[in-house]
């Protein structure tokens, strides 16, 4: 049984305006995305900005209310659970945010922040809480004197470590990492990734790892989900992803990755055109307008995400 | 905790601003004065009793000879009246102009002085214009000496208090302007503090709740403040104060508090609502939601504390606007009636200004001006020091 299973998740954001705050239209952020994550697995989600990666991550742990679709956690459906009934699940899933500056309350010290989190989820005794705080600070590689400091006294990388400590404070089994290293320097990125990897191993965490950086996804994850305009277009194992990729969009993405061999030169297949607007979705496959393999059928019908070979799923009419 | 606050960026930045510190010192001085009045350092009786003749000019202006003659008459007459009473000794003991009391001399001696003094008064009164007759000035000085000897000499600190009391002159009922202006600080600070505290508290809470919970709550709050702000504020103030006519609170500060609080919560409410609309989308708020904290807890612990800088700035802005509104209301006769207040003083001074006597209106406006200026400087400095954006910038610069 997978730990997390999401079925046909849809999220629309209403766009209001004008007189009487009418609904003028909808932003189609997610258009029926499904995936499952086994216990201990890391699923990467990749796609260009605005394709709904973050919305997917937030909706998966009920930070956003999905418009339709269902979410199963450990076999139980949590899509419509009320606040109180959701509470036991809250402590089992956590999120790490992209921006280390806006993800920490500037008025709380590290200790105050961790303490309220730990106490909220059970731990009672004062000594017990203090011990847990010290342990967490050590686990994420911060110096013990970080306890009494405010967020603005830390660098971006250190702040991200605090964000990770907060997510770990409730001892979750599932973590959504929403571009956790995108706003960090490359040298710091490696540190944070290594930290996440160590923690994943130590606690046996299951993760949904969101990033727009294919290199990081390939390195860090077991499988990846490629998204385009709110659709999942391909799901494939990360190993040898470059050769496995079937969907033309995935191939274009992977092809745009720099190759670390100066002699290996290939012509770059640059995609033409732009992503369609999420306000009014095109009929059929959203990628049809830019696709080199486009067929008549693509403009009429959206292809389903179907299993092709060895656990790889592709949503494309042109791929056999 | 206190050390941490002291070393926080905002406070350090505030302390480096010398002008702000000066303003803070002035404000503390005012607050101290208000505290002294509140603790009974200056009683209401002192502020309403007669301290001397009418329209005595303050320390910068020397009285014209005509006026000096008038003052001498003023001091002579009660003694003369007392001497005619059945029990002159008792009547003399009742004469008091604040510190100044009749001399403890035998009645016969006092009668003699009064008689000789009146001779000089008559003599001087005959001449038409004392300005043009410098030869008569020594006579006037002699008269003043005689009048002085009717009263007990002031001793020790009494000299100082007397001088202080008359330093800004007296109004047309002989009450000390200095005392009244200082007493008015109490009224101003009371009105400012109560209004600013209540309005900022209520406004921030309503605005924060409206923005964070949204839905009907937001609609209700927006409707409320739009309705209130669509009525001209001075009219609304007057109406709200008029509501209390006939009630036991009429003439006290309660109607003023009520009216000002009802009109001034709008500012902080709007500003806080806007800020919370922004803050609630921030990731630390989402993080708190993902931990599972209740919505009220998130609002009170994670969102509203991050609008403290707005509350501080709003507080100091509302403090002065409340004081100004109170002065206007009292000037119109809608505010305080039983106590002195700068508005009451300015209202009184309208008659004096016609007679070229500016001490009362000058004192009231100067006291108010200094306080308002200091608070404006302070709120500017607070804005500079505690706005998280500028604080963040300087944190990165380090």
Describe this entry's structure for a reader.
- The complex is a heterodimer of chains A (320) and B (398).
- In chain A, the strands form 2 sheets. Chain A has an 8-stranded mixed sheet, with helices on both faces. A 4-stranded antiparallel sheet of chain A has the order 2-1-4-5, covered by helices on one side.
- Chain A is built from 9 helices and 12 strands.
- Chain A has 320 residues and is of the alpha/beta class.
- The model of chain A has no long low-confidence stretch (mean pLDDT 88).
- Chain B is mainly α.
- Chain B is 73% helix and 1% strand.
- Chain B contains 20 helices and 2 strands.
- Chain B has helices at 2-7, 9-16, 18-38, 44-48, 65-84, 88-94, 107-126, 137-150, 157-165, 177-213, 215-229, 233-242, 254-264, 266-279, 283-291, 295-303, 308-331, 342-354, 359-386, 388-397; strands spanning 96-97, 100-101.
- A two-stranded antiparallel ribbon of chain B has the order 1-2.
- The two termini of chain B are 23 Å apart.
- Mean pLDDT of chain B is 87; it is low at 394-398.
- Chain A binds chain B through residues 58, 61, 63, 83, 86-87, 90-91, 93-95, 97-99, 101-108, 116-117, 120-121, 152-153, 163, 166-167, 170, and chain B through 9, 282-284, 286-294, 301-302, 305-306, 308, 388, 391-392, 395.
Looking at this protein, list some descriptive labels:
heterodimer, A: 320 residues, alpha/beta, Rossmann fold, 8-stranded mixed sheet, 4-stranded antiparallel sheet, 12 strands, 28% helix, B: 398 residues, mainly alpha, MetI-like fold, 2 domains, two-stranded antiparallel sheet, 20 helices, 2 strands, 73% helix, 1% strand, disordered C terminus
The whole-angstrom Rg of chain B is: 29 Å
Please name the CATH topology of chain A: Rossmann fold
Tell me the radius of gyration of chain A. Answer: 21 Å
> Might you state the CATH topology name of the largest domain in chain B?
MetI-like fold
Order of helices and strands of chain A: EEEHEEHEHHHEHEHEEHHEE
Oligomer description: heterodimer
CATH class of the largest domain in chain B: Mainly Alpha
Distance between the termini of chain A: 29 Å
Give the overall silhouette of chain A.
globular
Can you count the helices of chain A? Answer: 9
Strand order of the largest sheet of chain A: 6-7-8-3-9-10-12-11
């Amino acid at each position: 049984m997978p730990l997390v299973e999401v079925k046909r998740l849809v999220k629309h954001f209403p766009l209001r305006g004008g007189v009487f705050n009418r609904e003028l239209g909808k932003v189609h952020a997610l258009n029926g995305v499904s995936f499952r994550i086994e216990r201990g697995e890391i699923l990467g989600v990749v796609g260009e900005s605005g394709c709904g990666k973050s919305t997917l991550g937030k909706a998966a742990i009920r930070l956003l209310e999905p418009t339709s679709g269902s979410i199963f956690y450990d076999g139980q459906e949590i899509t419509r659970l009320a606040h109180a009934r959701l509470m036991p699940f809250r402590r089992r899933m956590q999120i790490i945010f992209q921006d280390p500056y806006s993800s920490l309350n500037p008025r709380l010290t590290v200790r105050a922040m961790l303490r309220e989190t730990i106490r909220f989820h059970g731990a009672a005794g004062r000594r017990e809480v203090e011990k847990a705080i010290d342990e967490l600070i050590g686990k994420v590689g911060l110096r013990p004197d970080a306890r009494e400091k405010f967020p603005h006294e830390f660098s971006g990388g250190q702040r991200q470590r605090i964000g990770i400590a907060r997510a770990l404070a409730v001892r979750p089994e599932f973590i959504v990492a929403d571009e956790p290293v995108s706003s960090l320097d490359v040298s710091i990125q490696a540190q944070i990734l290594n930290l996440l990897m160590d923690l994943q191993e130590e606690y046996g965490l299951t993760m949904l790892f969101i990033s727009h950086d294919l290199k990081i996804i390939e390195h860090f994850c077991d499988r990846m989900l490629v998204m385009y305009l709110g659709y999942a277009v391909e799901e494939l194992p990360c190993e040898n992803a470059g050769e496995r990729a079937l969907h033309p969009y995935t191939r274009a993405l992977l092809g745009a990755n720099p190759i670390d061999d100066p002699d290996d030169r290939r012509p770059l297949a640059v995609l033409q055109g732009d992503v369609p607007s999420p306000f009014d979705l095109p009929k059929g496959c959203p990628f049809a307008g830019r696709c080199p393999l486009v067929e008549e059928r693509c403009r009429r019908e959206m292809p389903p995400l179907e299993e092709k070979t060895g656990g790889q799923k592709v949503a494309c009419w042109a791929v056999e | 905790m206190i050390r941490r606050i002291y070393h926080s960026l905002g406070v350090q930045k505030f302390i480096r601003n010398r002008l702000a510190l000066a303003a803070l010192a002035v404000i503390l001085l005012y607050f101290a004065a208000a505290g002294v009045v509140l603790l009974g350092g200056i009683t209401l009786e002192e502020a309403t009793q007669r301290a001397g003749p009418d329209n005595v000019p303050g320390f910068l202006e020397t009285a014209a000879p005509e006026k000096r003659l008038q003052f001498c008459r003023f001091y002579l007459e009660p003694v003369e009246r007392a001497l005619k009473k059945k029990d002159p000794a008792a009547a003399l003991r009742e004469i008091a102009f604040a510190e100044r009391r009749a001399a403890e001399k035998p009645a016969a001696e006092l009668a003699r002085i009064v008689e000789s003094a009146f001779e000089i008064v008559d003599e001087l009164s005959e001449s038409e214009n004392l300005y043009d007759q410098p030869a008569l000035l020594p006579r006037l000085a002699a008269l003043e000496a005689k009048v002085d000897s009717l009263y007990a000499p002031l001793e020790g600190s009494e000299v100082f208090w007397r001088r202080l009391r008359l330093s800004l002159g007296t109004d047309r009922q002989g009450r000390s302007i200095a005392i009244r202006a200082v007493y008015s600080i109490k009224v101003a600070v009371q009105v400012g503090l109560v209004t600013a505290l209540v309005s900022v508290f209520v406004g921030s809470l309503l605005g924060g709740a409206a923005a964070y919970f949204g839905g009907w709550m937001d609609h209700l709050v927006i409707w409320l403040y739009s309705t209130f702000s669509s009525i001209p504020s001075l009219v609304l103030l007057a109406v709200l104060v008029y509501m209390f006519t006939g009630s036991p609170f009429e003439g006290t500060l309660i109607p003023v508090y009520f009216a000002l609080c009802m009109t001034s919560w709008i500012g902080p409410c709007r500003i806080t609502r806007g800020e919370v609309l922004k803050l609630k989308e921030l990731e630390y708020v989402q993080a708190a939601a993902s931990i599972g904290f209740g919505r009220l807890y998130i609002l009170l612990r994670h969102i509203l504390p991050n609008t403290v800088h707005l509350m501080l700035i709003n507080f100091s802005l509302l403090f002065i606007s409340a004081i100004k509104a109170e002065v206007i209301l009292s000037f119109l006769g809608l505010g305080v009636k039983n106590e002195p207040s700068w508005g009451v003083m300015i209202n009184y001074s309208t008659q004096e200004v016609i007679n070229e006597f500016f001490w009362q209106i000058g004192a009231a406006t100067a006291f108010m001006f200094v306080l308002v200026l200091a608070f404006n400087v302070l709120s500017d400095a607070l804005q500079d020091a505690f706005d998280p954006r500028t604080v963040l910038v300087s944190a990165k610069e380090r």
